[in-house]
Design goal:
single chain; about 10% strand; about 210 residues; 4-stranded mixed sheet
Length: about 210
């Protein structure tokens, strides 16, 4: 984001803002970090996060709004006016309004999803939470849930809280998958069958060769 956009986002907040809980790289992450810092200073983190999710949903659900975001030939002033109209009576925070005004000014509305994802990552680090999807072929019973939580907690750093969500995928056949933000632990029967079939195929190929 250019200095003009950053200044617009920060508004008149000149005092020192809180440090971000984690350092992220990339332009969208930088925008999200500045937004997070301003929202943290103004004690609006949860509300801004919810508003970002709402805007992502709006871009996905409304084709006309999506076109405004991705059309590189649409005048940026017109983009800004459209976004301002969408947010005007929405009850959105001034932080969110400034953010989307800045994105429109920089012709970067298409980065909304990436900015929201980076903001979510900052929020997880801020709350010291690690989210994990536990995927199994059948719904878990109580004992299985306890055991898989122990398995998942091995990948959580001390001081962080594990937040689990259970999903069922019968295609796994058996076993489980632990799906974190930054890693995938696949201990499913399907995975083992794929590895076995690949090994058999390699052996057959070698024998023929």
């Amino acid at each position: 984001m250019l200095a003009r956009g950053a200044a617009l986002l920060a508004g008149r907040v000149l005092e020192a803002t809180p440090d971000a809980p984690v350092s992220l790289s990339g332009t969208s992450a930088s925008i999200a970090t500045l937004t997070w810092q301003v929202a943290a200073k103004e004690k609006q983190l949860e509300k801004v996060q919810d508003e970002l999710h709402q805007m992502v949903a709006a871009f996905k659900e409304l084709p006309e709004l999506a076109r405004v975001a991705v059309d590189p030939f649409l005048n940026v002033r017109l983009k800004a006016n459209i976004v301002n109209a969408v947010l005007k009576d929405s009850g959105a925070t001034e932080i969110t309004k400034r953010l989307f005004a800045a994105l429109a000014e920089e012709n970067a509305l298409a980065a909304t999803l990436q900015v929201s994802a980076a903001f979510d990552e900052l929020m997880l680090a801020h709350k010291k939470e690690v989210h994990c999807n536990i995927i199994t072929a059948e719904p878990l019973d109580k004992l299985e849930r306890v055991e898989l939580r122990k398995q998942a907690e091995q990948f959580v750093e001390p001081g962080f809280k594990l937040v689990m969500q259970e999903k069922v995928d019968r295609k796994l056949v058996g076993g489980f998958i632990l799906e974190f933000e930054d890693r995938l632990v696949d201990m499913s029967v399907r995975k083992k069958l794929e590895e076995f079939n690949a090994l058999v195929f390699k052996l057959e190929t070698d024998l023929r060769g």
